[in-house]
Amino acid sequence: VLRLGEMSIEGYSVAGEETWFRIHPPGIALDVGRGAPTLTGSRDLFVSHGHLDHALGIPYVLSQRTMHHVAPADPESVSRPVTRIFCPRAIAEGVAALVLACERLESVAYRHEIVGLDPGDRVDVGRGLAIEAFSTDHVVPSLGFHLLRRRRKLEEEYRSLSRDELVRLKASGVGIERESEEIWLSYCGDTGPGVWRLAPRLAESRLLMIECTFLGDEARQRGTAYKHLHFEDLVDHEADLAGHEAIVLHHLSRRHTLGDLRREVETRLPRLAPKVHLLGAAS
Ligand SMILES: [Zn+2]
Ligand SMILES: [Zn+2]
Description:
Elements: E1 2-4, E2 7-14, E3 18-24, E4 28-32, E5 44-46, H1 52-55, H2 57-69, E6 83-88, H3 92-106, E7 112-117, E8 122-126, E9 129-135, E10 143-154, H4 163-171, E11 177-187, H5 195-198, E12 207-211, H6 220-226, H7 231-236, H8 238-241, E13 246-250, H9 258-268, E14 276-278
Parallel strand pairs: 4-5, 5-6, 6-7, 11-12, 12-13, 13-14
Antiparallel strand pairs: 1-2, 2-3, 3-4, 8-9, 9-10, 10-11
Helix pairs in contact: 2-3
The structure holds zinc ion (2 copies).
């Protein structure tokens, strides 16, 4: 679990094993791994792509949520919240088939909805927050997700006034604030370095969650072949990473340890190091 200001990021991520995160607020899942118990608290699941280390948990989470919410005497209760699964449009049919197979196995109907998204599509997730999908650079249809927050900001011209003066102005009906929208967090899922070109708004994100699968010379070609990020790609994009308040690296291959990655960050990206957080298996 990482706490960054008001944001809590709970998760687990090892390349090829599983990757899932719970982001609070608003309590959504970003990928679902092979199905983590923590995720059963999430109504909205955002799945970046169909690789099973990110998506297999969909039926597990639906099954758990159905068990927790259905009283045996009232299986059709409409009070059950509908679990919403958002995924790249190209895989929505495959996800529906996977879920249907599991419903048949369990003789249960999960209360759910599967929504295919295209880059640029937006979903309201409550508390003034929304998700916007963006294109990423992977070997199968894939999306990343921006978490957008609407905030009210004081208009420039009123910033020097005292609290009392502001209260007085507001009471007299003067519009002293302006609504603005910021990218609070961006989650890139699995991606190669094309993501910076495909998603130019990444730079605006306050908190960036980005993968780093490979380290070292012998793994250099692997990132290119499998469309994952190698640590050298982060070094190449140091300038793009400079503006984020925090950077969370995840999805490290099992051939490396978090200690190896921490050393690379400290020696090769010393200026970024204080704001780089690592999420993965304990090591
Ligand atoms: Zn992966
Ligand atoms: Zn993948």
